[in-house]
């Protein structure tokens, strides 16, 4: 069977019940989706399948023939980052970075679906994604700001949630 | 000094946001083998028979390592500090926690490795297990560790970490009230998103390149070198990209066994734990049992503290003696108490061994101390800020282990909290400073503990 990964036609030889995560990482060498739990619990493996966020660890590759699969590699390279990617850098929304590919994929789908900058709605959209480092606030800042775009990547933004002790 | 005070972008932010960051599981080498472990299904058991001969014949199996393959089987996390070791890299005569590794298989893929694990012939005799650290002190407690149920090597041959400062009995006689509390935080899994993972690559010159998710690279290198009884220059460690650690990646979980398997098979060996293994078999933050008894005056000065701490070490000691020592140094929290009597025990149970997590040994006591401070304030009817500001560490005060505080932040932090929560503090508390005690801030019981800068 074939799938289209980040615009490239790829032939898949793994058996149809192989998780898409395994196909991407082990057969096709697309490494940004992460194996955090392989049980659908953490969201680190999330990719876009025909524009919809899916847990690639729970998606049998045979169930998505000829699908358009998008990972963060396909959203933008370092020199051509999308607004969401730029916002994650600008707001330090990635700390260890392991959950970041899934977060960015989910945030991208949320904003492309007309999502607002309302933090409660962003929280709802990202509810299936576990981050152990950031406490989520910088991620919410980044997604809210990504709606407007335009970041100076030579610096980082001050989070509105940051309280500086004097 | 261009960076100090500046808002700089994360050096690794672009890599994270574009999926280019290379974690250990993303490293690709040709001919890589994959690992599965035979782990104890029992909390405590004797190993009566272990035979890997059938498993070795299974398809796709390249190497199996058991205790018999480890040059130095027992090496401790604190061995380099001269503290005796107790934990075998792989179970030999017995297993002391559920999930303890006994044998590891390297095979062409994880399915083949798991099939070989299932084919290992092993017989256990289940033994009584101990789960409640308080029962470690019972005369009839199950004997679960060759050192007994209490770690016996503090200061050489003591089974307790002690602090004695001032005269706590006298302080209790002078106190208006005795206020006590018991605090028992539970175990917590560090739960990094990236599970334990390592990759060891044998090089043509006899060295090993080890890709590691460790939080403590040179420490892990020393542990691998010690178990293999090889010099440090035989190992090149590649680290620095950690998919979350929170203390759980201070222990050396995968690197040593990957390297033994790489040595035996002559091929690169990767071992990535499943989420289930991470939860069930990796170290956790310890459960603690803390009893605090304070002698206080009715206006909120703490004259003396007696404290008993039990620390659940799980099946082996690992870093626990260090954790309890650090805990003892911090058992007055951010406050100055001149008369102290502290006893801390490291208890062995048949739980998974416990280890570092975010403020090792200190977070537990901070929880207990701050809760106890609020309890004292409530029982005395004293304002909780005033109680804390009275007893707050100030320059010249001394810690439980006699260190002079040079840069204490308690007063500043309390003022910041009051400010952030719109809490009005009355004089003199609103004007308190961290400067050396004098006048109303220096009651008689605190005079003797003061240390002047010329003392240090």
Topology:
The complex is a heterodimer of chains A (166) and B (456).
Chain A: E1 2-5, E2 8-11, H1 20-27, E3 46-49, E4 52-55, E5 68-70, H2 72-75, H3 83-90, H4 100-112, H5 119-125, H6 137-146
Parallel strand pairs in A: 1-5
Antiparallel strand pairs in A: 1-2, 3-4, 3-5
Chain B: H1 13-17, E1 33-39, E2 45-51, H2 53-56, E3 61-65, E4 94-95, E5 101-107, H3 110-118, E6 121-126, E7 161-165, H4 168-174, E8 177-183, E9 197-202, E10 208-212, H5 217-228, E11 235-238, H6 255-265, E12 269-272, H7 275-281, E13 288-296, E14 302-314, H8 320-329, E15 339-348, H9 362-380, H10 384-391, H11 410-420, H12 444-447
Parallel strand pairs in B: 1-12, 10-11, 14-15
Antiparallel strand pairs in B: 1-5, 2-4, 2-6, 3-5, 7-15, 8-13, 9-10, 9-12, 13-14
Helix pairs in contact in B: 5-6
What's a concise summary of this model?
Chain A is 30% helix and 11% strand. Chain A is of the alpha+beta class.
Strand order of the largest sheet of chain B: 3-5-1-12-9-10-11
Query: Order of helices and strands of chain B, N to C?
Result: HEEHEEEHEEHEEEHEHEHEEHEHHHH
**Element string of chain A (H = helix, E = strand):** EEHEEEHHHHH
Q: Give the uncertain stretches of chain B in residue-range form.
A: none
Q: Using only CA atoms, what is the Rg of chain B? A: 26 Å
């Amino acid at each position: 069977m074939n799938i289209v990964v980040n615009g490239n036609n790829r032939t898949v030889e793994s058996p149809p019940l192989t998780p898409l995560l395994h196909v991407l990482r082990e057969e096709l060498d697309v490494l940004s989706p992460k194996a955090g739990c392989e049980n659908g619990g953490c969201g680190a493996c999330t990719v876009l399948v025909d524009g919809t966020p899916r847990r690639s660890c729970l998606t049998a590759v045979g169930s998505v023939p000829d699908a358009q699969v998008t990972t963060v590699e396909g959203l933008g390279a370092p020199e051509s980052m999308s607004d969401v990617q730029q916002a994650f850098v600008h707001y330090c929304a990635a700390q260890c970075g392991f959950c970041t590919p899934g977060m960015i994929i989910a945030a991208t789908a949320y904003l492309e679906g007309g999502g607002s900058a309302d933090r409660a709605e962003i929280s709802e959209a990202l509810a299936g994604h576990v981050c152990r480092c950031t406490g989520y606030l910088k991620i919410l800042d980044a997604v809210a700001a990504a709606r407007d775009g335009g970041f100076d990547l030579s610096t980082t933004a001050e989070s509105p949630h940051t309280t500086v002790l004097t | 000094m261009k960076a100090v005070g500046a808002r700089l972008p994360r050096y690794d932010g672009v890599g994270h946001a574009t999926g280019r960051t290379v974690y250990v599981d993303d490293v690709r080498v040709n001919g890589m083998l994959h690992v599965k472990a035979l782990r104890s299904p029992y909390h405590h058991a004797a190993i009566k028979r272990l035979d890997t001969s059938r498993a070795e014949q299974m398809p796709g199996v390249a190497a199996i390592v058991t205790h018999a393959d480890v040059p130095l089987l027992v090496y401790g996390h604190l061995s380099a500090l001269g503290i005796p070791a107790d934990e075998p890299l792989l179970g030999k005569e017995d297993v002391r926690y559920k999930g303890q590794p006994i044998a590891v298989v390297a095979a062409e893929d994880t399915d083949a490795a798991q099939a070989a694990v299932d084919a290992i012939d092993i017989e256990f005799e289940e033994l009584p297990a101990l789960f409640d650290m308080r029962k470690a002190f019972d005369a009839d407690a199950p004997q679960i560790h060759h050192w007994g149920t209490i770690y016996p090597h503090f200061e050489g041959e003591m089974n307790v970490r002690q602090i004695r400062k001032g005269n706590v009995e006298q302080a209790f006689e002078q106190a208006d009230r005795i206020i006590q509390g018991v605090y028992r935080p539970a175990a917590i899994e560090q739960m990094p998103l990236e599970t334990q993972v390592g990759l060891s690559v044998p090089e043509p010159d006899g060295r090993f390149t080890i890709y590691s998710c460790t939080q403590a690279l040179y420490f892990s290198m020393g542990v691998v070198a010690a178990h293999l009884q090889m010099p440090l220059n035989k190992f090149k460690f590649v680290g620095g990209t950690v998919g979350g650690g929170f203390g759980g990646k201070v222990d050396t979980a995968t690197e040593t066994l990957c390297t033994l398997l790489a040595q035996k098979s002559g091929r690169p060996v990767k071992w990535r734990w499943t989420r289930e293994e991470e939860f069930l078999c990796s170290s956790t933050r310890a459960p603690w049992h803390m009893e605090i008894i304070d002698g206080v005056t009715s206006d909120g000065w703490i004259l003396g503290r007696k404290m008993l701490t039990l620390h659940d070490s799980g099946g082996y000691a690992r870093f626990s003696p260090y954790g309890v020592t650090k805990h003892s140094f911090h058992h007055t929290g951010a406050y100055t108490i001149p008369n102290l009597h502290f006893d801390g025990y490291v208890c062995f149970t048949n739980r998974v061994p416990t280890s570092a997590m975010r403020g090792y040994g200190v977070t537990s006591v901070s929880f207990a101390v701050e809760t106890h401070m609020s309890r004292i304030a409530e029982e005395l009817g004293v304002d909780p800020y005033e109680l804390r500001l009275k007893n707050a560490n100030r320059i010249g005060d001394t810690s439980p282990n006699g260190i002079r505080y040079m840069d204490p932040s308690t007063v500043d932090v309390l003022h910041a909290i009051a400010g952030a929560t719109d809490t009005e503090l009355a004089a003199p508390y609103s004007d308190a400073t961290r400067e050396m005690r004098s006048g109303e801030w220096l009651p008689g019981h605190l005079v003797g503990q003061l240390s002047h800068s010329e003392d240090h």
